[in-house]
Amino acid sequence: MAEIAFDGAVPVDGYGPGFFRIAGQKYEGAMMLTPSEASGWQGYDDLAALLARRGEFDVVLVGTGDTVAYPPQAFRDRLEQAGLGVEFMQTPAACRTYNLLLAEGRRVAALMFPVS
Question: In this model, does residue 74 exceed pLDDT 70?
Answer without folding.
Answer: yes
